[in-house]
Amino acid sequence: MVTQPAPPVTWHSGNFVRSEVLRADVSRNVAFMTGRPLFYGAYNAAGSAGTGTHGINMGIEFYDNWNGHSPTTSASGYFCQMPGWYLCKLLIGYNYTSATNEEFGAGFNGLSGGSSFGFNYGALQSNGSTIPLASQCTDLILQTVTGPIGGSGDFIQFLTVNNSGGSVGIIQNTAFFPYTTVRWVAADVTVPPSPLPGAPALAAWPVPPSFVTSSFLNTNIRDTAEFLLSPPILRAFQSGSHTLAAQTFPAGTAVPLNNVTVDNYSGFNTGTGVYTAPVAGNYFVHGQLNFNAIASGGNYGLGFQVNSGTIQWCGHWGRTAETLGGGVDGQVRLRLNANDTVTMYATQSTLSTATYSVASGATTRMIIVWEGL
To answer: Quick check: 230 and 187 in contact, CB under 8 A?
Structure first.
């Protein structure tokens, strides 16, 4: 197991820094950041998903560097070994090929801060065709209470969602191999640090006879380490009643995201639904839409706009007339400069006004995570 980082310390205010401070505040943090918790597992049983919402065991471990999962003990969950925000993804293929529309999905639940959370669903999909479907869920989940596998600490459970009223086979092959990833992305910091640490823009080392000062080390080492332990992250979601008029693709409408779970750099505007990048870098951006049922067929689409540019469409779902509702999800990686803006857009062509779902756990949301320079 990777050694947990020591909390940042106050560096000496004079011109000298003791070696033990460097070891505690730098070496251990660097060791942690080069081996942050990551689990990558897959389903390997020729089984089925029962009706309703149930855990799905991940019997194969491709990677689990902090030993938060066991394929034999509590195989449907990952247990917190290091506090922080975890970016989680789950994909499940369902072997449902009936002409009757039924609803499927993937999701997470568990404990966060010792309290239950979930069910948190991805975009729910109704299927009534001869082609199987693959559902996924991506979410940003806080874990604070560490503990052993199967113990009383925080955990994230992987869920099947099958609302067909009967068991449905889980597809296990190279195209629909069910898998999950759980990745530590940021420390538990919900209030922006002041001043905000910038992405590393390091100064040149002093040339003798000049000497290294504590101010130089603070900027080049301490502040960089603190930034990498808590880079910009966002989880924004929608609450209340909202609608989306029918449009002709590629026209779209900004999604009215009006709440945040975490926004550690205060980059999101809940009035406009716009996120402003606080620092330059590569950003992972994910979104999902969920709508109530519409009695006419059509398409749903999801995309992102950077500044005032062309909408980058990345999710699409074609649907027939049904009474269940559902949505679509999509993701991109964007290279952003500081103060660039990102807005999530939706489009739908059902010829009727669509109403965003307010069902528990099925909210429309956007997730953004800074991943590097």
So the answer is: yes
